[in-house]
Each structure stands twice: as C-alpha cells, then as structure tokens.
Design brief:
Layout lengths: L1 H37 L4 H11 L4 H14 L4 H10 L5 H16 L3 H25 L1 H32 L5
Helix pairs in contact: 1-2, 1-5, 1-6, 2-3, 3-4, 4-5, 5-6
C-alpha cells in the first residue's frame, strides 16, 4: 500500500515536470516560428523550419502531421484546423494550432499573437514551478524529523555523554 502511494505521488510529480517541459518546448517553438516569420518567410516555411530546429518529441510529431496535411493538398489553415480537431497528445501545441487557425481566419497579426503565446507559456511554466517549489518544505518534514534530526542528536549527545562519564569517573 505504501509503495503504491509513493509511486502515485512520484508519477504525479513526473507528470508535473513533463507538463512544464511541454510548456517550455512550446514557447521555444513559438520563438523559432516568430523568428522565421520576422525574417520574411512564409507561415508554412517558418513552421517547417521551426519544427525541425526542435528535438524529436511529441510537439515535433504533431507538427509533422500538419506538414503532412499541407503536403497532401490542404492549405496551411485547413491543415492546422484539422490537426487542432484531432486527438492531440501535446496540449500546448493544440493551443498553438487553435490560435494560428483563429489568427488566419480573422486576419489578426500572427507575430503578435505568437509572441504573446510564448510569453504566456513561459509564465504558466514559471507559475507551475513556483507551485511545486511551495510544496517542498512540507515534503521535507518527514525526512528531517525521522532521519536527520536523530543523527544530529546522537552525534551531539554522544560527545556530551562521553564527557559526562569522564567527569564523574573516580579513577576506575
């Protein structure tokens, strides 16, 4: 029973860190996309170049689906919309696709939206990291009380007990 509680907490912590990692990856991808767009590239080419600059992961796999739909004859807007409607394993990337589709449909500036989203993802990651950091003192109480403090008391007490016996020894 105790093992299951420990492993479920470990899995929960692992999921928290993987979601943090996904947010950071999405923000980095958006920065690369904005960089490509600012340098004068088209949206599809900038998307393609940004996608191949990031390491192989879920975000890249989902992005390759968009490029596959584009290569099969769909426009970029249709491909992004199609992928945003599909089951997406990378939640921040799905949000990116939804915002891209909305920007293309409404004609709003993509650069401003993507820059704002990158800062938003970074802020979300920072907030989650701060929330995790706030739980650390509570999680450290058990090891401190049951492992570290007794060792300190034994080390300090052993010297005091030794001095006590030496001071009251009557030549034995």
């Amino acid at each position: 029973m105790a093992k299951m509680v420990f492993f479920s907490k470990y899995k929960s912590l692992k999921n928290d860190f993987s979601s943090l990692h996904e947010l950071e990856e999405a923000a980095d991808f958006l920065d690369l996309l904005v960089l490509g767009l600012e340098s004068g590239g088209s949206l599809k080419n900038s998307f393609d170049m940004a996608l191949f600059q990031i390491p192989k992961n879920k975000l890249r796999e989902e992005g390759l689906k968009v490029l596959f739909y584009c290569d099969s004859g769909m426009s970029f807007r249709e491909a992004a919309f199609q992928c945003s409607q599909d089951q997406c394993s990378h939640v921040p990337f799905k949000e990116i696709l939804e915002k891209l589709t909305l920007s293309l449909r409404l004609g709003t500036p993509i650069l401003q939206n993507m820059t704002f989203m990158a800062s938003h993802f970074r802020q979300q990651a920072l907030t989650r990291l701060e929330e995790l950091a706030q739980t650390v003192p509570v999680k450290m109480i058990f090891p401190l009380v049951f492992f570290l403090f007794p060792v300190i008391f034994i080390l300090l007490g052993a010297g005091a007990i030794n001095d006590f016996f030496q001071s009251f020894s009557f030549g034995f």
